[in-house]
Amino acid sequence: MSEQYGNKITELINKSEIADTLNSYFRALDKKDFDPQHFAAILTADAKMTRPNGMSLTGPGEISASHAQSFTRFESSQHLLTAPDISIDGGTATVRANLVAMHMWEGSKTNANDVDNFFVAGGVIDVTLIQIDGRWKISQLSNTVIWRAGGFRNMLQTR
């Protein structure tokens, strides 16, 4: 196999592993799996997470604890990550992807027919990942909301 094909295969493997890392993060949110060890496996020790409201969190412990507290107000959530544009430069990767997130308020009994039971938001995430010991880890993630719809009765809570 030529070097060109070998490089392309390496690039495809890296992009697949990067996508898996991002999916693992959002799957943890949807499953309400805020185990600090899981977050430490997919985030760097000094990872910075910037929420849509501009609040930033640092490190797997703070990020997982904050998410655990914030997600208590949701009965369930679903994050749909699409069209990741992944660029790799050595051991650093940058990703821009579209994200649609739906959150069902606690007590809604997953009834999306009542607009007060949920909110949905569409936006863009920008992510930097670092390759550490052969694994891709998120070092920075920011979420910019472009639009929102649904009921916002609980949005005033800042968690």
- The termini sit apart by 53 Å
The value of Rg in angstroms is 17 Å
For the sheet with most strands, the description reads:
6 strands, mixed
Unreliable runs: none
Beta percentage is: over 45%
Shape estimate = globular
Question: What does this molecule look like?
Answer:
There is one protein chain. The protein is α+β, with helices and mostly antiparallel strands. It has a single domain (3-150), classed as Nuclear Transport Factor 2, Chain: A (Roll). The protein is 30% helix and 45% strand. The protein contains three helices and six strands. It has a six-stranded mixed sheet with strand order 2-1-6-5-4-3. α2 (36-42) packs across α3. The chain is globular, with a radius of gyration of 17 Å. The mean pLDDT is 93.
Quick description:
This protein is α+β, with helices and mostly antiparallel strands and 159 residues long.
